[in-house]
Amino acid sequence: MTDFLSVDDVSRIFGPNLSLGERIAARLGGKVETRSVRAVSDVSLSVRKGETLGLVGESGCGKSTLGRVIAGILPPTTGRVAIDGAPVMENGTKVTTRVQTVFQDPFASLDPRMKVGDTVSEGPIAHGLTTRGGARAYVAQWFERVGLDPVWVDRYPHQFSGGQRQRIAIARALAMQPDVLICDEPVASLDVSIQAQIINLFLELTRDLGLTSVFISHDLSVVQHVSDRVAVMYLGRIVELGPVAQVFGTPAHPYTAALFGSVPKLVLDADELVRFNAIDGEVPSPLAPPSGCYYHPRCPLATRTCRETQPRTQPVSDLRAVACHHFDAHLKARSSDAQAGRAVKT
Amino acid sequence: MTDPVLSVENLCTHFFTRAGVVKAVDGVSFDLARGEIMGLVGESGSGKTVTGFSLLGLVDPPGRIVRGSVRLAGTELTTLPDARLRALRGREISMIFQDPIATLNPMLTIGQQMKLAIDAHERLSRRAATARSTELLTQVGIPSAAARLRAYPHEFSGGMRQRVAIAIALLHRPAVIVADEPTTALDVSIQAQILLQMRDLARETGTAMIWISHDLAVVSSLASKLAVMYAGRIVEQGPTATLLRDPRHPYTAGLIASLPAMTKPGTPLTQIRGTTPSLLSLPPGCPFAPRCGKTTDRCREEPALTEENGRGWRCFHPEGSNQEVPA
């Protein structure tokens, strides 16, 4: 299989938007924030056709920014995103409809003053996928596809529950007949019992429509469930990338291991019901990232090399890559731990 | 068994809105022993937060506690005059809220806010107040606490702000703390740090806690017993391990089964059909009946509480056991 969606060396920098007065003040030594944030740094990845790539990390790690760059909502500062070889953006403008997005909050992402049917048909009409006359039938078809009653097209968003609104948002994205779907925390704002419904819908739709997707979430168990491969981000960089079972089973990066370890997990068939460990410290400010490896201040394995040089991304196996100076030692320690039957600690 | 520090009986909090009466909390009963942590689990709108607010007498109109009793170390709170309730709030029973940004005053330093919280109940010298504040901030894991007293809330990260809120709740060593989703807004690595600290704090100080959350795994990591709420009622309660391994109420069983970790990756999750009901138009009888796979004609009546071995549930057709509740 070939790469379908490719992200090449993408960085996105947010600079302070200084007014003339602020620039003068800064020049004269005033306290004006002139530093910029590298929300996404040198990210390269590719997603094969029909594959779901999970994107995980803590808040502020740049996963949403990367999602927006891939979706063509934000132009990258450097680098390029392409679908099937064709660029998503040219000169800062989105030039394709082949990638669509489902956002986290279905209360904010639907226009409260538009009938939901109009919200769903607006894009397809503008891009000639349907006509004004045919819009109703076209929308009805997508409503059915996502499990909504087509008679609801004339209702307004406030008449729907959170789960139903998220279905409408999914219908809006799919009605553009995209090849790539970006889901930015699509279930984070939903109730537990509704989450399962939307996850099942996502699994069914991506399979039936052959969609390629990027699934962004801070909830590792959800990502583990829906993704084929997963990328772990920390302070704007991808620290580890690989097939879900391998990355979750035997993490190569100490951060991946620590992140997975810190999620409380129910283990119903063991004495100890819930397992988790804490990582020390907090994520540093992206305005002033640490030297060398960004994770070194929190890493129990950090050495001088880690404090001084940024680790390059290197392959662990065919499908896996990791950005860590000491991943070999880390992997070895973990596998011997597992063999000894000890609880894996980080 | 020793006397419970908090005892709630048949608590009913209703909201009298123009659209009708919303029975947000409808007949909630539980006991909490000294130093015990109870998890209160439920989805949005299940009444878990209103239950927490009712315990502290924080329900605003159009809401009102219409029935039931809340006894804190023998004192009945529901009929207590406002002034006496204020004297207890923060001292004997306190609350930690979900959003630490909204909890703290952005205009005051952390030290000033902690001093205010101390002054509300005690006369302490400035020096003693500073010492107590520093001690508590250290206890909840804030580095260089003495210096941080002079900092404003915006100078703290989300996790650190929540720690400050926890320190303020602990200032007077209350008998009971109600924590309403205090880690939901935080990152998982910070959540883990706070959960471990809270577990130790409860053990050391003997403070009992009610931990409100929608996340079963988070609550279970702390609580020795669980109460599952649905549509204003506790539909099942019992010791954490028993309840999770052998749930009786179909809703509890459904919640556990719908966790992604319970299903092989890539395969459909077990889902509870339908949506959470509107409290304005609840069906008569069991509120879960329209979404339940085991519904029969009997479910049109409200099931009574069945109690067995220190646990209880409200269902005519409980899971796990073949015995039906005799008619």
From TrEMBL, chain B:
Question: Biological process GO annotation list?
Answer: peptide transport; transmembrane transport
> Which GO molecular function entries does the Swiss-Prot or TrEMBL record give?
ATP binding; ATP hydrolysis activity
Q: Which organism is it from?
A: Sulfitobacter sabulilitoris
Task: Provide the protein name.
Answer: ABC transporter ATP-binding protein
UniProt lists the family membership as follows: Belongs to the ABC transporter superfamily.
- PANTHER family associated with the record: DIPEPTIDE TRANSPORT ATP-BINDING PROTEIN DPPD, OLIGOPEPTIDE TRANSPORT ATP-BINDING PROTEIN APPD
Coiled-coil spans are none
GO CC: one term? plasma membrane
Q: Where is this region: Disordered?
A: 304-327
The UniProt entry, under InterPro entries, shows: AAA+_ATPase, ABC_Ni/Peptide_Import, ABC_transporter-like_ATP-bd, ABC_transporter-like_CS, Oligopep_ABC_C, P-loop_NTPase
Which intervals hold domain ABC transporter? 6-256
